[in-house]
């Protein structure tokens, strides 16, 4: 098994509770990472002899399920807190909780669109059939 997951202390993990986050998930048997938006609603820490692995309890933003899913730290390559949405409506991820010595993916997120050719809402004004 490849070690690519997060190592978080309890204080850092609990700082994510109540946050909407963008998470990059990776699995050994999947060639491509998977990005997902979710709300972190809890943290389960390892307890010797009871629970070996730490994980978040998370509610997917795009799901109508009533119960949280387990998102194991070992499956997370990148996690970014979505602090707030741009007032102009671009919806970019504006904040990030930095992890020390992160040698992980530095995948670029969409740039802010606010110029004379493309307004902040992304509309070019052209008709799209």
Overall body shape:
globular
Number of helices: 1
How far from one another are the termini?
Answer: 47 Å
Please give the share of residues in helix.
Answer: under 10%
**Low-pLDDT segments, ≥5 res:** 86-103
Radius of gyration, in Å, reads 17 Å
| Helix-strand category | mainly beta
Report mean pLDDT, rounded to a whole number: 75
Describe the main β-sheet briefly: 5 strands, antiparallel
Strand content: 25-35%
Order of SSEs, N→C?
A: HEEEEE
Major beta sheet, strand line-up: 4-3-2-1-5
DSSP strand count: 5
Tell me the layout of helices and strands.
Elements: H1 10-15, E1 20-25, E2 34-44, E3 55-60, E4 69-72, E5 76-81
Verbal overview:
This protein has 129 residues and is mostly beta strands. 5% of the residues lie in helices and 26% in strands. The protein is built from one helix and five strands, in the order αβββββ. It has a five-stranded antiparallel β-sheet, with no helix packed on it. β3 and β4 form a beta hairpin. The longest helix is centred in the first third of the chain and has 6 residues, at 10-15. The relative contact order is 0.20.
Give keywords:
129 residues, mainly beta, 5-stranded antiparallel beta sheet, 5 strands
Task: Provide a compact summary of the structure.
With 129 residues, this protein is mainly β. It is 5% helix and 26% strand.
């Amino acid at each position: 098994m490849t070690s690519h997951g997060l190592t978080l202390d309890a204080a850092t993990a609990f700082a994510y509770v109540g946050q909407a986050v963008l998470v990059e998930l990776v699995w050994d048997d999947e060639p491509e990472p998977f990005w997902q938006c979710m709300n972190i609603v809890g943290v389960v820490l390892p307890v010797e002899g009871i629970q070996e692995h730490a994980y978040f309890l998370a509610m997917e933003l795009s799901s109508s399920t009533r119960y949280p899913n387990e998102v194991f730290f070992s499956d997370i390559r990148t996690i970014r807190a979505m602090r707030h949405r741009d007032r102009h409506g671009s919806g970019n991820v504006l904040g990030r909780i930095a992890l020390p010595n992160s040698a992980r993916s530095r995948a670029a997120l969409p740039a802010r669109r606010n110029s004379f050719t493309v307004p902040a809402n992304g509309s070019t004004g052209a008709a799209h059939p």
